[in-house]
């Protein structure tokens, strides 16, 4: 066979396999926004449900051995994204006492030759970051990196020119690692340091066109308030925060949603142009309600489940979980921990909520994915408020309704295809399904979840086309 014929056949096979689209830069491991703009996909077109964990101080607080333990645990529990700060402080030091930058200048990363933690001359802060990023890649985990935490920018420690040089350094160092997501910002309003945040976002995009970028905002705010139309921002993120309904009273905040994190997602979902959105920081398990008063009640596994199902059923493309002890990698030897953690990170890895998050991911991936939409018209009659609110979502062949309290509620049938449907209860605590039976797919039907109505007796009603 002549060379030209061989080349033609190879090109034909490539087109048959990948169509006219260019193959993603990282192949099947690439993360892309879905064609409908609502979700994420991998490079092979499969759905990617973001199940994140906040390991904010991973780079600075854990040894290589401890980091491996943490990452392996999160892999086994079904997490696939780790949210972590590159620089918590300016300057930052890690557990090996290696400094991140020269004289507190983010434009001057402190670099040495070599990569050996047993030889302080041939090892530095960035080698440790590299090691953990690569170890996460071995385990199939994506790393959502916050370049510099927001408080440093607000305090004036990072100027626009410095931010550009630092972002260029990060982009060039990590742009060929497939498991990177950029999380600009860091618990900060976009208005606090707007020029710096845009400089970081624009520089990352210019030097790294193949990784997704978003902005991690301040509590009770959404990145879309500042960056929804920014070309560098691929998807929106909200931080619904850690306050109860009665604690969300600040007159200076634009939004007063309390614990109703689904309202942030609902607002983002209506924006144009269409972009995916996610709650990147709801209340953490084990953290005091309201954060700062350690005598307040603590958020529980039931609460983090509620935030997860509420936000996803409202239209989010995934969910980020957090635990008070794990996010700061707390150890009993720490002299000044934040927010009064009561157990060490190594123990808190097995907190009840952390073990239950995988069931949300498994449930959403068990049905058709890209046709799913939020649809509150499924709930017939008057819906409840606050904890009694029922959130509903559906695809063409299925519908799901989440109740946090397990109260009776009515469903408008006929919203999905089919003359009849198979109904079942899904338990967010165990991931198990209890059959209800087959029902005619028309009219209004009332459903009575198992158990007595109470906060935390949460259930998902599933209706499947027969």
From TrEMBL:
What InterPro entries is this protein classified in? Apiosidase-like_cat_dom, Collagen-bd_put, GH
PROSITE patterns the UniProt entry points to: PROKAR_LIPOPROTEIN
Q: Which SUPFAM superfamilies match?
A: (Trans)glycosidases
Indicate the segments forming the Apiosidase-like catalytic domain, all copies: 34-370
Signal peptide location? none
**Tree of life domain:** Bacteria
Per UniProt, residues of the Putative collagen-binding domain are: 373-464
Protein name per Swiss-Prot or TrEMBL: Putative collagen-binding domain of a collagenase
């Amino acid at each position: 066979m002549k060379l030209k014929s061989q080349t033609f056949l190879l090109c034909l096979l490539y087109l048959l396999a990948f169509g006219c689209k260019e193959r993603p830069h990282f192949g099947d491991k690439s993360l892309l926004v879905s064609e409908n703009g609502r979700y994420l996909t991998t490079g092979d077109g499969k759905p990617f449900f973001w199940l994140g964990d906040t390991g904010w101080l991973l780079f600075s607080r854990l040894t290589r051995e401890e980091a491996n333990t943490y990452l392996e645990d999160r892999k086994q529990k079904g997490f696939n994204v780790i949210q972590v700060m590159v620089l918590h402080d300016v300057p930052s030091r890690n557990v090996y006492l290696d400094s991140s930058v020269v004289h507190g200048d983010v434009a001057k990363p402190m670099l040495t030759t070599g990569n050996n933690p047993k030889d302080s001359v041939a090892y530095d802060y960035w080698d440790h970051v590299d090691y953990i990023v690569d170890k996460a890649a071995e385990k199939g985990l994506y790393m959502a990196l916050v370049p510099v935490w927001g408080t440093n920018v607000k305090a004036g420690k990072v100027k626009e020119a410095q931010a550009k040089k630092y972002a260029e350094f990060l982009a060039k160092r990590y742009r060929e690692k497939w498991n990177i997501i950029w999380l600009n910002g860091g618990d900060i309003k976009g208005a606090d340091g707007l020029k710096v945040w845009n400089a970081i976002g624009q520089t990352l995009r210019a030097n790294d066109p193949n990784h997704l970028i978003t902005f991690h905002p301040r509590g009770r705010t959404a990145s879309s308030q500042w960056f929804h139309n920014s070309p560098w921002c691929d998807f929106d993120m909200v931080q619904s925060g850690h306050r109860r309904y009665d604690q969300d009273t600040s007159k200076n905040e634009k939004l007063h949603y309390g614990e109703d994190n689904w309202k942030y997602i609902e607002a983002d979902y209506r924006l144009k142009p269409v972009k995916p959105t996610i709650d990147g920081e709801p209340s953490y398990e084990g953290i005091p309600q309201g954060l700062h008063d350690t005598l307040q009640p603590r958020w529980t596994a039931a609460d983090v489940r509620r935030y997860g199902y509420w936000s996803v059923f409202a239209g989010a493309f995934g969910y980020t979980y957090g635990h008070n002890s794990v996010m700061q990698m707390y150890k009993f030897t720490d002299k000044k921990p934040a927010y009064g953690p009561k157990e060490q990170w190594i123990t808190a890895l097995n907190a009840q909520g952390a073990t239950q998050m995988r069931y949300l991911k498994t449930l959403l991936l068990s049905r058709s994915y890209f046709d799913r939409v939020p649809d509150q018209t499924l709930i017939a009659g008057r819906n409840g408020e606050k904890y009694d609110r029922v959130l509903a979502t559906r695809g063409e062949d299925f519908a799901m309704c989440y109740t946090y309290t397990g109260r009776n509620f009515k469903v408008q049938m006929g919203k999905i295809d089919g003359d009849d449907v198979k109904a079942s209860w899904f338990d967010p605590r165990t991931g198990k399904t209890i059959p209800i039976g087959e029902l005619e797919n028309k009219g209004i039907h009332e459903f009575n979840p198992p158990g007595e109505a109470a906060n935390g007796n949460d259930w998902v009603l599933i209706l499947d086309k027969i």
